[in-house]
Amino acid sequence: MQLSFTQTGEGKSPLVIMHGLFGSGRNWQGIAKQLSNRFTVFTLDLRNHGSSQHTDEMDYSSMAGDVVEFLESQGLADAAILGHSMGGKVAMSLALSHPDRVKNLIIVDIAPVSYQHNFDDILQALKSVPVEKISSRKQADDYLAKKIDVLSLRQFLLQNLVPVPSGGFKWRVNLKSIENNMDAIMGFPTEESRAVFVHPTLFINGEKSTYLSAKYQLVALEMFPNAVVQTVANAGHWPHVESPVEFMMYLDQFLDN
Hints:
Elements: E1 5-8, E2 13-18, H1 29-35, E3 39-44, H2 60-73, E4 79-84, H3 86-97, E5 102-108, H4 120-127, H5 137-145, H6 151-158, E6 161-163, E7 169-171, H7 175-180, H8 182-186, E8 201-206, H9 214-223, E9 227-232, H10 239-242, H11 244-256
Parallel strand pairs: 2-3, 2-4, 4-5, 5-8, 8-9
Antiparallel strand pairs: 1-3, 6-7
Helix pairs in contact: 2-3, 5-6
């Protein structure tokens, strides 16, 4: 599968960034610009997201394979890899299954474990919007507000709403595939959980988030024994958005070593 991407910078060491569920590469353009003086940064749209192709399959082994294919298409033997949330699981799956492709690894607020919760409430909220009939994003937000109270989350989700030339809108994320593959998205491949990645690794978590709690950090360090963990104070699941200065400090310290 050929992934859509944006390249920022040229002629420098490659760094590939992967977004989380319901996101896209555009969410990371600000970070990419900050890193472009030292890296050629590729922000990917993972399958079923952004401008990349839609497909029924959405397990982490397949998505890691997409990244291998991307690296080959760009003539890159390896790269620094950064992934947030779902993209972090793709990054870990890639590192554990193709360690020769990953120079070093940055994982943002996620662990190589299965989580019990899901995103059914968000899926149902998105599906409740009659996208073919609405004429504005404001109307879409009104529908989402009935099920999602948090304005910032609604604004994030609405980035996936795109107009249709014939009228109305559509979601550019593949809601059906995401819903059908939610167990795989919330899980982690068992065959890869027995592997070990020994290259330099950084885990960045938000202090207020539970995705990379102490017990999950222990699991992560078993698979990534050369890892360090940095916690961004007063941040939740999006530390790069909620505390960008502290986030970049930890990222720069790691990448400069």
